[in-house]
């Protein structure tokens, strides 16, 4: 008797667990929250300093600051012709189900912005072919870019819909945002984030955290 009445409950419970697991899996894809305390998923370029920093105790109750946990990635440097430097990470993920990229940005000094670059594989080879003579522009795949301002102290959550990205290299890929992994395509191959100052020559210090793809 007990067994029979228990089974439907177990069944429903299992379905609930499965449902929660499925929705959790689909609701976002974490690129990095830096809680590993390591910077090894990323490469760096330019003269910029990049390294893990401790977030410290948030000032007051701030859910965004609290969601940043113990560590974030600090980026700091001086610019020449607006450019400070950048970081990048290989993703190789099917981003079809997502509609935006989200990140938390902390302004720790100076005025500037972060240029987010996304690369979508269009010649279906899991690789990004680039022209080293032309500022590393991709030759067979799409490069999509969007800029976000670095605001003041405290983390500001920034959410950029993929529709806000513009194509920087028309004629190389197919010109469509299609980061899927069909027909041996690598999908969304890579992300890069370039730090720029608002003045041609300036200094900036910022932190980034909770970089993720979501709906
Ligand atoms: Ca963090
Ligand atoms: Ca594609
Ligand atoms: Ca390619
Ligand atoms: Ca494309």
Task: Report a brief summary of the structure.
With 215 residues, the chain is mainly β.
Report on the architecture of this protein.
It is a single chain. The protein is mainly β. The chain has one domain: Galactose-binding lectin (Jelly Rolls). Helix content is 14%, strand content 45%. The chain is built from two helices and 14 strands; from the N terminus they run αβββαβββββββββββ. It has helices at residues 2-27, 63-67, and strands at 28-32, 43-46, 49-54, 71-78, 83-93, 100-109, 112-120, 130-131, 137-138, 142-150, 155-161, 166-167, 188-197, 203-214. Strands 1, 3, 4, 6, 11 and 14 form a six-stranded antiparallel sheet that branches. A six-stranded antiparallel sheet has the order 2-5-13-7-10-12, with no helix packed on it. A two-stranded antiparallel sheet has the order 8-9. The N and C termini lie far apart (45 Å). It comes from candidate division WOR-1 bacterium RIFOXYC12_FULL_54_18. This is NADH:ubiquinone oxidoreductase intermediate-associated protein 30 domain-containing protein.
Question: How does the SSE layout of this entry go?
Answer:
Elements: H1 2-27, E1 28-32, E2 43-46, E3 49-54, H2 63-67, E4 71-78, E5 83-93, E6 100-109, E7 112-120, E8 130-131, E9 137-138, E10 142-150, E11 155-161, E12 166-167, E13 188-197, E14 203-214
Antiparallel strand pairs: 1-14, 2-5, 3-4, 4-14, 5-13, 6-11, 6-14, 7-10, 7-13, 8-9, 10-12
Bound molecules: calcium ion (4 copies).
Protein name: NADH:ubiquinone oxidoreductase intermediate-associated protein 30 domain-containing protein
């Amino acid at each position: 008797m007990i067994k029979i009445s228990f089974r439907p409950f177990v069944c429903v419970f299992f379905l609930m667990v499965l449902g929660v697991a499925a929705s959790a899996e689909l609701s976002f894809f974490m690129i990095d929250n830096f809680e590993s305390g390591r910077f090894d998923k990323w490469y760096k370029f330019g003269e910029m300093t990049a390294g893990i920093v401790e977030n410290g105790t948030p000032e007051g109750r701030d859910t965004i600051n609290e969601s940043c946990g113990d560590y974030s990635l600090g980026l700091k440097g001086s610019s020449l012709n607006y450019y400070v430097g950048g970081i990048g990470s290989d993703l190789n993920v099917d981003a079809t189900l997502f509609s935006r990229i989200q990140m938390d940005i902390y302004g720790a000094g100076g005025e500037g912005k972060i240029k987010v670059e996304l690369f979508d594989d269009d010649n279906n080879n899991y690789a990004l072919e680039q022209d080293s003579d032309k500022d590393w522009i991709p030759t067979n795949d799409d490069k999509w870019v969007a800029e976000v301002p670095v605001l003041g102290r405290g983390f500001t959550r920034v959410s950029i819909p993929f529709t806000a990205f513009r194509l920087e290299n028309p004629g190389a890929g197919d010109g469509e945002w299609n980061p899927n992994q069909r027909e041996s395509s690598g999908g969304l191959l890579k992300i890069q984030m370039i730090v720029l100052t608002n003045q041609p020559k300036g200094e900036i210090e910022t932190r980034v955290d909770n970089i993720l793809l979501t709906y």
